[in-house]
Each structure stands twice: as structure tokens, then as C-alpha cells.
Amino acid sequence: MLDTPANRPDLPPEIARRRTFAIISHPDAGKTTLTEKFLLFGGAIQMAGQVRAKGEARRTRSDFMQMEKDRGISVSASAMSFDYSDFRFNLVDTPGHSDFSEDTYRTLTAVDAAVMVIDGAKGVESQTRKLFEVCRLRDLPILTFCNKMDRESRDTFDIIDEIQENLAIDVTPASWPIGVGSEFLGCYDILRDRLELMDRKDRNKVAESIRIAGLEDPKLAEHVPPHLLDKLVEEVEMARELLPKLDPQSVLEGHMTPIWFGSAINSFGVKELMDGIATYGPVPQVQSAEPRQIAPEEKKVAGFVFKVQANMDPKHRDRVAFVRMASGHFERGMKLTHVRSKKPMTISNPVMFLASDRELAEEAWAGDIIGIPNHGQLRIGDTLTEGEALRVTGIPSFAPELLQSCRAGDPMKAKHLEKALMQFAEEGAAKVFKPSFGSGFIVGVVGPLQFEVLGSRIEMEYGLPVRFDSSQFTSARWVKGERQAVDKFVNANKQHIATDHDGDVVYLTRLQWDIDRVERDYPDVTLSATKEMM
Ligand code: G4P
């Protein structure tokens, strides 16, 4: 095993070898391609092309619905585990579409690091920036992969400058590209002083790397034509002088990102990046919880639910709760305490996701992600322990940005609709509010596409056609405060009051002015745009 600062010597080796991370990127930068190459080199798939659906079609709405219908695909893609050298990588998928940013946020609570993929021609794009900000909130270490170097791309210094300035993070080159576009030969591996050449013949193969003794080594000239060699030597010298040196501690603290250049489609630069994740990526981290933190090396098992996916098999109405193991060594069949209900749960059929298959998980260590099939007991934010009343914190629910009223096409089916909506609320797919006045429900989401997905899922999974209409409200806030103060507030503002799926009181309005007024007139209550999931 590599001796790095990320490997705490006090950790059991099984935990120390785990790397749990997500990939963040703007659509089209190459996340799917890179994921596939990770799986290929991790031995989880035999051939590239097994994971991805076809190009553009995949991103159209109809195809998105199809994917939702075919729950198998999106589920196996939610968390994938594979071995790479001495390491176990757990790659957690973040939904790419910006409409699902809340889900993405919660997914990022389950990882210890992120790989940021950018397109060498486009640099830092809007979605990259948003996701980066989320990572920053949690001080997640970030490793950067600059993709598509086989195409015309921007000047290397420009790309690095843009990341430094745009994202306010130190950037240190782990490799340096040689030529661009059709002239792209490969990279000089700055960390290991060797030449990595790209194999253009076989996209699934990695060309041999050539060990050299520094930039003066005559062997370089045997592989790199003079005009590219001069440029390379000059640039690498400049980079070494001007750019910060790799500081592993600073990477772990999220202040510095090493950048690798490559071409995922040509399998180039991917192994170097994987070595980088192994070497500089963090081991499973301490988890914040109440009343105390959870350390990965603790003997007792603890874990928390960060995602719930329902109706994976519509015939059985089952749900899978995705659990990030926070500590200990879990074994199948263990009896864990579901802290919220204080009830024991025997975990007899946990699953792990290995590429496109799901398998029974016989065991799992801190850092791993397992799926627990259940009938609705497990919700986002729930903690499972071996008995201690711990509650993992930091998994928020955000106030929705779009509200619509929702009615069943058939008024006789209102009860069915309630059941369906509550289930989606528990899954985290939408916020559902039941107004204290009138009938029907108010559904809140972050992006408009979610309404469409929700409508089609309710129809598909419950056989219930539904209608979404514009709502008189545009904002929702959770009402917090002492019981008496909240009751007084509720009684005086009935027209604006609703409850969410947990029964918590929510204030609905269309005016920021209203919110300001409440804050002024009711100093004992707080209107909050977030709520801790519990
Ligand atoms: P995403 O998941 O981030 O959205 O990106 P994805 O991997 O789907 O890649 C987006 C497009 O970029 C795909 O082309 C893919 O083949 C291409 N691509 C990925 N990596 C590289 C690379 O290193 N070099 C080059 N030149 N292209 C790359 P597409 O035309 O949308 O799909 P397809 O027809 O190739 O399947």
C-alpha cells in the first residue's frame, strides 16, 4: 500500500484502502466516458460501451423517462464499487441534470472526495462551478481531470488560471500535455518524471509509459518531435517556477487541486488519475453526528441513509435505501438499530453495486455504500447503529424553488394520490405540502423537469394520471420555534399554513415581503429555508 498522508496508520487496512468519491462536471465534459474507463480498469466491465447509452439520445427527455422507467440502470449507476491495485474505489453517481441539485448535494454528503472533470476546450462551465461550490461547503478534497485533450483545447496555463481564479483554489499540475488536438501526443508526468504516450490505435488500451530521468533525458527526443519538445521543456520549467507545488495536506483540506490532462475516450490519463485518487484521495473520514462524531475505525457499525430510491421493481413496491457506512465492519444478517424509531432491523439482503449487476453484500467497511431494500422504514437522514442513539447531521433538505398544486385526474383517487406523493417526498424526489385550507397538495421542486418526471412516475407506478397547476404560492419556509409561539403564529396565519410529509409546519407565500413581515412581527418564530433530514 502507498504510504501517503491520506493513509492514517491507525486505520484497519480494509478501511484505509477505501476511496469513496463522486465525479462532478458540466454535462458533456465526459463524466460517463470517464466512469466507464474507471470500471474498465477496475475490472468491473470487460469492454467500454457497456454502461453508456447512446450519445445525444440519452439526454433527451423521452430517454430520461425511459431511464427512470428502467430503474435497473439508474440504480446500478447510483454507487459502483471496484478494485484498483490495492484499493477499493466506491464511485457514487451524482445526477447530472441541474434540476436535481438537492439530490446531488445529499450525494456529496456520502463521499470523501470529488473528481472534477472539465472539457479542455471549454474550461470551467456553469454546472461545474455550482457543484464545486457544494463541495467547498463541505471542504471536500477535489482532484481535477482536464478531458478531451485529443481535440483542440485551450492553452494549459489559461485553463489552470481559469480554475484558480474562477474557483479560488490553488491548482498544481500533476501532468503536462504535449501538443493539442491532432498533435496531442500524451503527457509528461510531473509527479513521476515519466512520459506517458497516448495509444491512438486502441481506445481501450493504455500505451506503455516511458521512464525518463528528468526533462534533459535524451530519451525524450526519441519520442517527442523537436517543436513540441522545446515547448514542453519551457512550459514545464515555467509551471514549476510559477505554480504551487503539490502539497498533499493542502489537497486533503480542499485548498489545492492537482490537475491531470487526458482523453477519457482514448483511455489516456485515466490510470494516472486513478493512481492520484489512491495516493492523494482521503481515506474514509470522520462523520459529524450528534451527540458525538463517528470515527471510521470504531469497532461498532454505524451508517446513514443519503438517498432512497423507490419502486425499483414496480410489482413489489420495494425501495432501496442507500447507506454510507460511517464506521466498523458490517456483515450481512447483522441486527442494527434504526435510531429514529428505536427499532431493531435485521439487514439480511443488503446489496452492493458492481457495474451493471447488483450483488448481495456479504460485508461492508466504513466508506462503502450498500443498498438496503425495505418497505419504507428507511428515510433520508436516518442513522443505523449497533444500539447507540447517534444521529448523523449535515444532510439538509432545501426549500423548493418552484411550487405547483397537484390533483388526481380522478377526484375519487385523492387518497391514492396522497400515498404516492408521500412516498416521493420520503424518497426526496419532491417536497409535498398539505395546506391547512382547501384540498389537494402543493408540490415543490428545484427544477421544472422534476414535475414532468414526477407526473410520469405517478402515472407509471401508481396508474394515476395527475394534473399540476400553477399555485398561488411561490415560496415555502419551515416554521421553527417553541411550541406555543408556533401555535400562535399558525392560528393567526391559517391561509398560509401547510404541513410537510413529516408533519412539520410550513409557511407558504408568494411575497418576500410576507417573510420579512413575519420575521418582524413574530420574533419568537424563525422561517427557515432548510431543514435537517432526520
Ligand atoms: P457526460 O457524461 O459528462 O455528459 O459526457 P459523456 O461521457 O457522455 O461525453 C460527452 C461526449 O464527449 C460524447 O460524445 C463522448 O464520446 C465525448 N468524449 C468523452 N471523452 C472524450 C475525449 O476524451 N475526447 C473526445 N474527442 N471526445 C470525448 P457524443 O458524441 O455525445 O456521444 P457518442 O456518440 O460518442 O457516444
UniProtKB/TrEMBL annotation:
<dbReference type="Pfam" id="PF00009">
    <property type="entry name" value="GTP_EFTU"/>
</dbReference>
<dbReference type="InterPro" id="IPR035647">
    <property type="entry name" value="EFG_III/V"/>
</dbReference>
<feature type="binding site">
    <location>
        <begin position="93"/>
        <end position="97"/>
    </location>
    <ligand>
        <name>GTP</name>
    </ligand>
</feature>
<dbReference type="Pfam" id="PF22042">
    <property type="entry name" value="EF-G_D2"/>
</dbReference>
<dbReference type="GO" id="GO:0016150">
    <property type="term" value="F:translation release factor activity, codon nonspecific"/>
</dbReference>
<dbReference type="GO" id="GO:0097216">
    <property type="term" value="F:guanosine tetraphosphate binding"/>
</dbReference>
<feature type="binding site">
    <location>
        <begin position="147"/>
        <end position="150"/>
    </location>
    <ligand>
        <name>GTP</name>
    </ligand>
</feature>
<keyword id="KW-0342">GTP-binding</keyword>
<dbReference type="GO" id="GO:0016149">
    <property type="term" value="F:translation release factor activity, codon specific"/>
</dbReference>
<comment type="function">
    <text>Increases the formation of ribosomal termination complexes and stimulates activities of RF-1 and RF-2. It binds guanine nucleotides and has strong preference for UGA stop codons. It may interact directly with the ribosome. The stimulation of RF-1 and RF-2 is significantly reduced by GTP and GDP, but not by GMP.</text>
</comment>
<dbReference type="GO" id="GO:0006449">
    <property type="term" value="P:regulation of translational termination"/>
</dbReference>
<dbReference type="InterPro" id="IPR032090">
    <property type="entry name" value="RF3_C"/>
</dbReference>
<keyword id="KW-0963">Cytoplasm</keyword>
<dbReference type="InterPro" id="IPR000795">
    <property type="entry name" value="T_Tr_GTP-bd_dom"/>
</dbReference>
<dbReference type="InterPro" id="IPR009000">
    <property type="entry name" value="Transl_B-barrel_sf"/>
</dbReference>
<keyword id="KW-0547">Nucleotide-binding</keyword>
<comment type="similarity">
    <text>Belongs to the TRAFAC class translation factor GTPase superfamily. Classic translation factor GTPase family. PrfC subfamily.</text>
</comment>
<feature type="domain" description="Tr-type G">
    <location>
        <begin position="16"/>
        <end position="285"/>
    </location>
</feature>
<protein>
    <recommendedName>
        <fullName>Peptide chain release factor 3</fullName>
    </recommendedName>
</protein>
<dbReference type="InterPro" id="IPR031157">
    <property type="entry name" value="G_TR_CS"/>
</dbReference>
<dbReference type="InterPro" id="IPR027417">
    <property type="entry name" value="P-loop_NTPase"/>
</dbReference>
<feature type="binding site">
    <location>
        <begin position="25"/>
        <end position="32"/>
    </location>
    <ligand>
        <name>GTP</name>
    </ligand>
</feature>
<dbReference type="InterPro" id="IPR004548">
    <property type="entry name" value="PrfC"/>
</dbReference>
<dbReference type="InterPro" id="IPR053905">
    <property type="entry name" value="EF-G-like_DII"/>
</dbReference>
<dbReference type="GO" id="GO:0005829">
    <property type="term" value="C:cytosol"/>
</dbReference>
<keyword id="KW-0648">Protein biosynthesis</keyword>
<dbReference type="GO" id="GO:0003924">
    <property type="term" value="F:GTPase activity"/>
</dbReference>
<dbReference type="InterPro" id="IPR005225">
    <property type="entry name" value="Small_GTP-bd"/>
</dbReference>
<dbReference type="InterPro" id="IPR038467">
    <property type="entry name" value="RF3_dom_3_sf"/>
</dbReference>
<dbReference type="GO" id="GO:0005525">
    <property type="term" value="F:GTP binding"/>
</dbReference>
<dbReference type="InterPro" id="IPR041732">
    <property type="entry name" value="RF3_GTP-bd"/>
</dbReference>
<dbReference type="Pfam" id="PF16658">
    <property type="entry name" value="RF3_C"/>
</dbReference>
